[in-house]
């Protein structure tokens, strides 16, 4: 059966990583069809709209979307893929590949995944002037006076719902079942009992439905320290949106760089996949961006499309290229171009 992938290449250096990876996926000959929704400035020039209806329809008609990193107007499509498609679970694997340049003395055995709640928390983006809170007369639990009286400034709403927390924790439990059966929750429940404490409470209740999954929890700053000191102990980690955003990038640094940071965003009916390295505008046009994150994101996408064997083959080929060490990009201490690296992976396949 043909599987259709909507490809949005992204901005700056991102297309330089995406194009050879899409070529490699096509060479697998497993029935993948690629379509290219026109979004961002190219779409604006033609239609006056950075996310026209035709692009939305192309995404809706595809089985999944492969999205290159964005720093500009193509982000409108990303907003649709995230909030429009309700892709509530952002999975960010942290896997050490022997041969990668890592700052750790001993990175062997690092293999965990951060599952970040992807739609709520501070990312509901409800903000405004503090004086707008005056009619509510909200008393801060620590400052013990009305919040709007502490000074001239801004507020942001942190929204944690039972429904949002329960579904992402269930997703994390199911992922842990497929891995090593251990789930960790990280929150700031000691200070934010009403929001983070609620996330932890719901997580505990939900995890109780999975007696085969070992469940523990840490204050998020304690977890951050443990993630650096003993990353091998973790399997799947679930946390609210903001902490997951920050700590998944930090996890990328553990194993080498964001150039190795893959991600997949999953909902009940749709998923999209995106390398998390950013657009790297400083090296745009040089053909040296590390495509590892795009390749690993592509492998996650193949798993989602029920091509697990081919996803595993890409991971194995990547591991062989890093272990060999002769065809690495400059961020990994080598001199290979992006296309050279992808060619080496294709040869390893």
Structural topology:
Layout: E1 3-8, H1 14-27, E2 32-35, H2 40-47, H3 53-61, E3 64-67, H4 75-84, E4 89-95, E5 111-117, E6 127-129, E7 154-156, H5 162-178, E8 182-187, H6 196-207, E9 214-219, H7 220-229, E10 236-239, H8 241-255, E11 264-266, E12 271-273, H9 292-304, H10 308-324, H11 338-348
Parallel strand pairs: 1-2, 1-3, 3-12, 5-10, 8-9, 8-10
Antiparallel strand pairs: 4-5, 4-11, 6-7, 11-12
Helix pairs in contact: 1-9, 1-11, 5-6, 7-8, 9-10, 10-11
List the secondary-structure elements in sequence, H or E: EHEHHEHEEEEHEHEHEHEEHHH
Number of domains: 2
Q: Regions with pLDDT < 50 over 5+ consecutive residues? A: none
* Gap from first CA to last CA: 23 Å
Helix/strand-derived category reads: alpha/beta
Instruction: Return Rg in Å.
Output: 21 Å
Question: CATH class of the largest domain, anyone?
Answer: Alpha Beta
Average of the residue pLDDT scores? 95
CATH architecture designation of the largest domain: 3-Layer(aba) Sandwich
Task: Tell me the fraction of residues in β-strands, as a range.
Answer: 15-25%
Strand arrangement across the biggest beta sheet: 2-1-3-12-11-4-5-10-8-9
Q: What percent of residues adopt helix (DSSP H or I)? A: 25-40%
Number of separate helices: 11
> Biggest sheet, in brief?
10 strands, mixed
CATH topology of the largest domain: the name is: Isopropylmalate Dehydrogenase
């Amino acid at each position: 059966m043909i599987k259709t992938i909507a490809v949005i290449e992204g901005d700056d250096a991102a297309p330089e990583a995406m194009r050879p990876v899409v070529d490699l996926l096509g060479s697998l000959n497993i029935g993948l069809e690629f379509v290219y929704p026109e979004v961002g400035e190219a779409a604006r020039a033609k239609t006056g709209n950075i996310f026209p209806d035709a692009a939305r329809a192309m995404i809706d008609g595809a089985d999944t979307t492969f999205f290159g990193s964005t720093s500009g107007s193509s982000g409108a499509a990303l907003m649709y893929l995230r909030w429009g498609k309700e892709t509530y679970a952002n999975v960010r694997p942290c896997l050490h590949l022997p041969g990668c340049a890592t700052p750790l003395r001993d990175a062997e055995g690092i293999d965990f995944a951060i599952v970040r709640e992807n739609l709520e928390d501070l990312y509901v983006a409800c903000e405004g002037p503090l004086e707008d809170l005056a009619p509510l007369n909200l008393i801060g639990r620590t400052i013990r006076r009305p919040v709007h009286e502490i000074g001239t400034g801004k507020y942001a709403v942190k929204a944690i719902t039972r429904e949002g927390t329960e579904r992402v924790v269930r997703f994390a439990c199911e992922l842990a079942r497929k891995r090593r059966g251990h789930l960790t929750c990280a929150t700031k429940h000691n200070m934010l009992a009403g929001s983070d404490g609620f996330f932890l409470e719901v997580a505990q209740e939900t995890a109780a439905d999975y007696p085969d999954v070992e469940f523990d929890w840490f204050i998020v700053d304690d977890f951050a320290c443990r993630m650096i000191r003993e990353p091998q102990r973790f399997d799947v980690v679930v946390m609210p949106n903001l902490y997951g955003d920050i700590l998944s990038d930090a996890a990328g640094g553990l194993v080498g760089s964001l150039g190795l940071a893959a991600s997949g965003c999953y909902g009940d009916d749709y998923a999209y996949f995106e390398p998390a390295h950013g657009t790297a505008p400083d090296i745009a046009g040089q053909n040296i961006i590390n495509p590892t994150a795009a390749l690993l994101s592509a492998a996650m996408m193949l798993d989602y499309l029920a091509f697990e064997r081919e996803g595993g083959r890409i991971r194995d080929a990547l591991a062989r290229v890093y272990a060999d060490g002769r065809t690495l990009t400059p961020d990994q201490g080598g001199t290979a171009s992006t296309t050279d690296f992808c060619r080496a992976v294709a040869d390893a396949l």
